[in-house]
Amino acid sequence: MSSNARVCRRFTETPVHNQAQQRPERTQCMSWKAFLMATSVEIARPLQRAEYDALVANGVFQDERIELLDGALVPMSPIGPPHSSAVQKLMELLLPALLGRATVRVRSPFAAHELSEPEPDIAIVPTDNDDYATRHPTQAHLIIEVADSSLDRDRDAKLQVYALSGVPEYWVVNLRERRIEVHAAPVGRAYASFAQYERTSAGKRCTL
Could you state, in order of their start, the residue ranges of all structural domains in the chain? Predict the structure, then answer.
């Protein structure tokens, strides 16, 4: 039902002087939003990660690029050349450095808390005996999001999801301002530590 739809109810007015005589039936309309507020109707609830996984397994979202964030299905931003290039360069740096120490996953689901399953650009996760063939990782050493059009979401909703999931370090590669924003020490839905590294910062390095 659209936001402009209206909910109508019928009622009959009964005059005080004559209970037997009734006026014609009349219709009263209110907006759909006003109806929900008046009746306290709950029309939605957060989608659980287990439910989302079941829908994915049944091919419900086969032609959609979405991810689950705090119980909501969120469209993923289109990927442009600067974004793809940054991910590629990061992979070329990370794979040799982490060979045999951890698994590097690219744009793959991360089983965060019970209401979230984001697909970060890069997730450095513990090695797994079957290479996560039967389940998504639930832990990560580091998660990296490359942000251009998605910058606001990566700084806010994604940051909260990763902090709540206990990811110890989260990087936002900010393509707009050409810097890396490093968040560490998760506390609830936030990170206690923040540092940023400009491209021109001499002597400053992000350590793996």
Answer: 6-39, 52-198
CA–CA separation, 74 and 52 (whole Å): 12
Is 157 in contact with 170 (CB distance < 8 Å)?
Answer: no
**Alpha carbon of residue 134 to chain centroid:** 23
Superfamily of domain 52-198: tt1808, chain A (3.90.1570.10)
Q: Is 161 exposed, middle or buried (0-12, 13-18, 19+ CB in 10 A)?
A: buried
Q: What is the pLDDT along the chain (208 residues), one digit of tens a residue?
A: 444 444 444 434 444 445 444 544 444 555 555 655 665 556 578 999 999 999 999 999 988 999 999 999 999 988 999 999 999 999 999 999 999 899 999 999 999 999 999 999 999 999 988 889 999 999 999 999 999 999 999 999 999 999 999 999 999 999 999 999 999 999 999 999 999 999 765 555 655 5
CB-based burial label for 54 (10 Å; 0-12, 13-18, 19+):
exposed
Cα angle 187, 191, 197 (rounded to 5 degrees) comes to: 160
d(CA 18, CA 173): 76
Give the chain's largest Cα–Cα span: 92
